[in-house]
Every structure is written in C-alpha cells, then in structure tokens.
Amino acid sequence: MKQYLDMLQYILDNGEQESNRTGIDTIMVSGYKFEHDMKDGFPLLTSKKMGIKSISAELEMFIKGIQSKKFLQDRKCTIWNQWCSSKKVPYGNDEETKAKMAAEDDLGPIYGVQGRRFDDHPELGLKGTDQLKNLIDTIKKDPTSRRLLVSYWNPNQIPEMALPPCHFAYQVLCHPKTKKMDIIWYQRSCDAPLGIPYDLASYALLLTLLCKETGYEPGKVIGMFANLHIYVNQIEGVKEQLKRPTHKLPTLEIKNFTSIFDWKYDDIELKNYEHEDAIKFDIAV
C-alpha cells in the first residue's frame, strides 16, 4: 500500500518532536486523511507481516461488547495485555504499576461496551444504548441517513476505561444506487507504525461484515487522523519499512456468515497474502 508508506514519509518530513504522557517523544503532524478503495484488495500491509487473526479477534470482542482480556488471550491475541480498567488499577508507566495493570483482567467499558451498551449502568438499573444494532437497523430502513454513526467517546465513563478511545467514532455512508457502502473512522491519537495498520484492517473487516449484514458491497475505508505520530524509538523501523517493496493486496472472504452478531473471529479466509518480514515496533504504554 503505497499510500501508507507515503503517510509515514510525510510524518518524517513534516513532523515536529513532542513529549507526551508515555515518556517517549513522538514526531507528529496535525490532521491527515487516509483513503483506501476496497476494490483494490483487503488493506493488510504487505511491507511487513501482520496477524489478521489478532485483528479479527479484537473486532469480535468489540462487536460482542466484551471487556475481558481473557477473551482475547484465549484466542492468542495479546494486544490489550498491558492495560486494564483504570478504576481497578490507576494508570502509571512505572514498572510496578505496569505489572499490576498486566495482571488485572477487566478492561472497563472500552470500545465494544460503548458500541453495544453505551452509558450502561446496571447498578442503577439503566440499560445502555445498543449503537451497533441501531446502526444496522437504520441502514436497512433509511440508508441515505447522515446519522449512521457510532461513538465510542463517553466522557462519563472514560475514568473507568483501560484507555480512552483512540479511534473514537465511525460513520457509514451508503449509496443505494450503486449498492456501495463506505466507512469513515475518526481517530484522535494515531500511532502510525503500530496502530494505524491494525485499525485500517479492522475497519475494512467491519465494513465487510456490515455489508454482508445489509446487502451492500464494500466501497471506501477512510481514516481521519488528528494527532498522527511516530514514536522516536520507532524511527529506525519506519525507515527500514520505507525501503521495502509492496505487493499486491490479498483478498479476504467471510465464511459461514449468518449474522454480524453471531460472527466469530476465525470465520475468515485470507487469500494470496504476500508480505515482507515482520518489523518489531515497541509499544508505548
């Protein structure tokens, strides 16, 4: 995906060095639009190897509204291991706090909880809003609506979350005449080497599932990025990636589909994924 490599180069050429809560500086730019047309293939990077099963497992967790790390760990996905509900263990980046965070299973009311039970307060007898179900129902009834939007940003529950949502909302745009559907996601904090490739594939997969559910065909996947950055300890890996060739994108098929709500992470088949070797990027906790 040349447009992704172009984005990395743009950050290196135009970014400014800034400090942040993690203690590891970033090279960052303000505001960037990324766009991929699904007719060109499934947007899984080919300039480095990526694990589609981890991406798929996390998306299943979001769709089901689960907040337990064990759900992911049982599927050999470790991406949330370092974090936990900040109500259970207040955030800190010292080694003792990191160990406590890793040992706690509860992630708090993160993405999927907000998507399926927004502002849920069972202790008060208040049932949260099922945004995903409402989105799908509206697509079927009123596909040209400009309100086909899911928000993960809930100021009332951010203090309980493992992390405030980085990608904080997404919007669907349907084109009934062509039967195409686009998805746009909005992201406040964007780790370009690690997070963005993951989120791009995740939203492409979500778009594919929404299309299966509603009878549309995947169109464009668009990312709107605010603070787009590369951590300074990622720069050498980025430079290595920029030297590498890209390959034709793979295709992804959904197997045994009955409903997005019943879909499982291994109900996918990735075909013709040709890629370069993996690159290890350290994650900033």
Radius of gyration: 19 Å
As for the number of domains, it is 1
Write the CATH homologous superfamily.
Answer: Thymidylate synthase/dCMP hydroxymethylase domain
* CATH architecture term: 2-Layer Sandwich
Helicity range = 25-40%
The CATH class name reads: Alpha Beta
SSE class? alpha+beta
**How many strands, which pairing sense, and closed or not: the largest β-sheet?**
6 strands, mixed
CATH overall fold name: Thymidylate Synthase, Chain A
Placed side by side, the strands forming the largest sheet appear as 1-2-6-5-4-3
Topology:
Blueprint: H1 2-14, E1 16-18, E2 26-37, H2 52-64, H3 69-73, H4 95-103, H5 111-117, H6 131-141, E3 149-151, E4 167-175, E5 180-191, H7 195-214, E6 217-231, H8 235-243, E7 251-254, E8 268-271
Parallel strand pairs: 5-6
Antiparallel strand pairs: 1-2, 2-6, 3-4, 4-5, 7-8
Helix pairs in contact: 1-8, 2-5, 2-7
What would your notes on this structure say?
The chain has a six-stranded mixed β-sheet with strand order 1-2-6-5-4-3. A two-stranded antiparallel sheet has the order 7-8. 31% of the residues lie in helices and 22% in strands. It has a single domain (2-271), classed as Thymidylate Synthase, Chain A. It is of the alpha+beta class and 285 residues long. The chain starts with a helix and ends in a 14-residue tail after the last strand. The protein has helices at 2-14, 52-64, 69-73, 95-103, 111-117, 131-141, 195-214, 235-243, and strands spanning 16-18, 26-37, 149-151, 167-175, 180-191, 217-231, 251-254, 268-271. The longest helix is centred in the last third of the chain and has 20 residues, at 195-214.
